[in-house]
Amino acid sequence: MCGIVGVVSHGPVNQIIYDALLLLQHRGQDAAGIATSHGSAFSMHKANGLVRDVFRTRNMRSLPGNSGIGQCRYPTAGSSSEEEAQPFYVNAPFGITLAHNGNLTNADQLKIEMFRNDRRHINTDSDSEVLLNVLAHEIQQATTGLLLDPAVIFKAVSALHKRVRGSYAVVSQIAGYGLLAFRDPYGIRPLCIGFNDTDRGPEYVVASESVALEGLGFHFLRDVMPGEAIFIDNDGKLYNQQCATNPTLNPCAFEFVYLARPDSVIDGASVYATRLRMGEHLAEKIRKQFRDGEIDVVMPIPDSSRPAAMELALKLNLHYREGFIKNRYIGRTFIMPGQGVRSKSVRQKLNAISSEFKGKSVLLVDDSIVRGTTSREIVQMARDSGAKRVIFASAAPPVKYPNVYGIDMPTRNELIAYGRTEEEVCREITADALVYQDIEAMKRSITDVNPLLKKFEASCFDGEYITGDISRDYLDKVEYARQHPKVIMEDIVRTQLNLNLAQIE
Length: 505
Hints:
By secondary structure, this protein is an alpha+beta fold. The chain has helices at about 15-25, 50-55, 55-60, 105-115, 125-140, 150-165, 210-215, 255-260, 270-290, 305-315, 340-350, 375-385, 420-430, 440-450, 460, 470-485, and strands at about 5-10, 30-40, 40-50, 65-75, 90, 95-105, 165-175, 180-185, 190-200, 200-205, 220-225, 230-235, 240, 265, 270, 295-300, 320, 325, 350, 360-365, 390-395, 435. α9 crosses α10 (about 305-315). The longest helix is centred in the middle third of the chain and has 19 residues, at about 270-290.
């Protein structure tokens, strides 16, 4: 669920990309990086940490150029090593930098092919480096001379689609030519494009969410279609082509549930509006299960559940109260690496207003229940604050299956709903009652907002993996790798392998 951005402008882009990454920080807080292009040369700076911590004034000054790409990383595959911070760089053909949001499900096989057939070396465990080398190889195969044109680039992306499986939204730069962006044939991970008219011609931004475009003062143009490639040359001319054989739009349902900002629009559906609808559908289910007077007050678990909770309270004619106050200086606990860190951070992030709980039957509404860590802590906080009864409601269905498309829930044993009934989950989180959203109701919440969206990537809820290449053996292998991580020697001595040309000590 990383955040990616690419910019082609008539002036320096370093500040624009930095501002865009700040707007996309919610998509990844592990690492950040920017690569700019000036003439036929690249400059890059990347490191572990939040955007504001990675980039200092000296780093920004060392990122010249009128086009560039950036990423804020949320680690799923690979490790959290600084060497795996993006963008990645490869010097041939032409010189290419790339940033990727998603997860390749056949990365291991591709890595073998890269070595045996393409004679390319992969230096890290990141599937994004694999993706970059596949792109580089296919561009090299499609090129007959020293010149590169959009037709050759699109031919290379078409070949890439045939080799690569999984989810991927990509922004990349080809030295001396321009910016390339493309999206997987299933449209799992979001990608949109915006423009700004100037006296010198149009400027373009490609980003994970529309909020990045709007925050920069750009006009939303459209979403990049599944399988489509966008190429913007150094003169600001835009080319596009459908590069997949049978593309279908299957946006990730979890983007609407939790990942995306509520002020974004993804594939024509307002995230905020979909969350309101989730609250409406959940209210109807609660109305059938509880009598009048059983619930005194509705409270959201801030922040992503707030729209659903407000609409639910309105539909049930119940009081809505803010019972938990969020510490804004603590990051999103869901995307923190490690169960211990997440558990410790819950009480650092949230504090209860005891007067709102004392002697009341409280309905707590959260966007989802994944591992149950946060839910258990929150229920206990409500009881400690004097709640008479704690009912827990999830605006999303039970998360029962691993996600292999870029969301950090690959281990079945981590998922509290895996192999458990709703009653057992309720006991695990120590609530008095538990209500889950129905799967069809969740999907209908999105379709209600945009009727053109009929199919979704919802594998973590329904166990249906749309790429068709996920087996039990694959899941077992992923889980084994996660439970037996490699010992990583962190960067004692910096190298040039990551092209950190902008780093000045």
